[in-house]
Sequence to fold (695 residues):
Amino acid sequence: MTSVPLVSVFSADDSTKVTAKHIPLPAVFQTPIRPDIVSFVHTNIAKNRRQAHAVNPQAGMQHSAESWGTGRAVARIPRVSGSGTHRSGQAAFGNQCRKGRMSLPIKVWRRWHRRVNIKQKRHAAATAVAATGIVPLVLARGHRISQVPQIPLVVEDKIESYEKTTDALNFLKRFGAFEDVQKVVSTKVVRAGISKQRGKKYRVRKGPLVVYFNENAKLLKAFRNVPGVEVVNVTRLNLLQLAPGGQLGRFVIWTQSAFAHLDKLFGTYRYASVLKDGYQLLRPLLTNPDLARIINSNQVQEKVQPAKTTKVLHDVQKKNPLKNTKAMDRLNPYAKKQRAAAVAAIKANTKGTKKIKKNKALKKASKAAFNKVAASLSDATKAAVQEEQDIKVKYFSVQKGAAQAE
Amino acid sequence: MQIDEVVWQVINRGHCSFKIKTISQNFCRNEYNVTGLCSKQSCPLANSQYATIKEEKGLCYLYVKTAERAQKPKELWEKILLSKNYEQALAQIDEQLKYWSNFMIHKNKQRLTKLRQMLIRIRKMRLKGFKELIPIKKKAERRDKIREQKALVAANLENAIEQELIDRLKNGVYNEIMNYNTKAFEKVVGQNQVEDEEEREQQEQEEEEEDYSDEELIFDPNDLEEDDEEDQEQDDEEDDKRLFQKQTFNQLRRDDDEVKDVKKKKPKVKLQYEEEEEVEDRKKQQIAF
Fold:
């Protein structure tokens, strides 16, 4: 992780002044970021604060309704007994009915709470703490930290003795955390929905989370009235506060002692946690998560085989070379020239010739030839021909006559 | 560098407060984004080495972010003033972002060009002035229009003009006699004398034998059938006008004396009232017959 391995502790009175220059970053901040674990744990843990509620078990059932059965031209749903009121004869009891009981009415013995494996919960908390040290994640979550001198922000223990809210406010202003508080103030909205009548009138954003160590610290009261700011002891870090809404990257302000305590709480990669019995920080799958860098590194590229070119076996669609000239040319390169030559030949042949006209002399000659042939025919054939001609004449005359008659 | 990949996965798959999703495209609301789009290359959060151009009071600045300052949000962005000369500014970008990815350099230059064009346009508009578009508010427009019409009617322009002209006439602005409509002139001049005349008239009439003659002058017994006071008054006015016109004409013939201002008298009304009663009685008598 490129999280700064060394962190400066700032003076409570002066944001430019650094009281302790280089403190090593607790190993928690090097935990792999696992939004999946956080999401899972958060959805389940969020259910643990729920209070049992239920629908009145008698709701919709306080009738002596009975089905009228078949044969009455009405649906078979139970109907309210009695008479003298609109309600009588109306459908009752079903979830589909008006004024009927709901389907699967909520029972008090619904399983409201979820248990999550301790290890999972601890991993989630560790990841959430790690995420508070990554600037882009805190920004993406929506905190206004562009004026904060350092993330993670560690301040000397003096703030634990703040009693006045003015001190708290001034402290926040000095460290550029006031912008976040202002965001909270300006975006306070009346909640939509019925909840506003049930004690949740406003929707308020989350501001900075102040983490302290000493149990006698008075800063709780000092920061209590600042909108959006939450105060929590290191030993009781809450995932619901570190990753509100299951979203990583809360803006956290640590006191020096709280910061130092984190190593004991979560342990390091060298030794297991002291306070969380046997808990060992999650190890990353990849020490270097930058895949692009790995792939493009010299070591990998050396071993990588050259990219394969795809070989085209055949065309997607077969073209007929007898019809498709290009397909023909591909098979027979000489075809192009042949075609050209044929065209040229035709042109050459037709160069001197004129159009053939029907010659009168020719016609006469052909007729004479015909007569000659006719003369040489036998009598039988002559008679047959004559007959045929007569029929023809008759036919045409009839036609003519008919036409004239009309 | 190492974290960038992780950050991008978390932001892109999960929730990023700067991301704006539309049907076709994703935008980035982050003020330091070069392109304005949400993508891994142009995400200012997911790149520890990043540069943008931002404009401030007509000057372009190059903002540069490096991995070394990643943990210090306050000092994160290094602000470099770019030259006002376009080519020099491009050269500056090249110099500052030397050995950076081509994408970053290219996009920064593009952004610089865009911003400069915008600034040019702003300057032009300021100098030449531009037509500011104001929306038409239908309701307001409609309302004002109607009010204007009403005001026009209420102003009584013609009357006001008329009065003004009359005053001028009286004051002697138009000393030389000009062509005018005699009737109108008499009417105008006579109006001042009307009240005077009315007084005298009434006095004369009272001295006469009967009141009925007055009525005849002022009322028509026929009109009384309608039994409306208003109508009667209107008829009165018309008759009065005719009468007064006659009188003024006579007056003109007689004198050119100045007319004193006469207060409005209401004996006419009284008279009417009395006459009305009498008339009604008479009417009854008539009916009886």
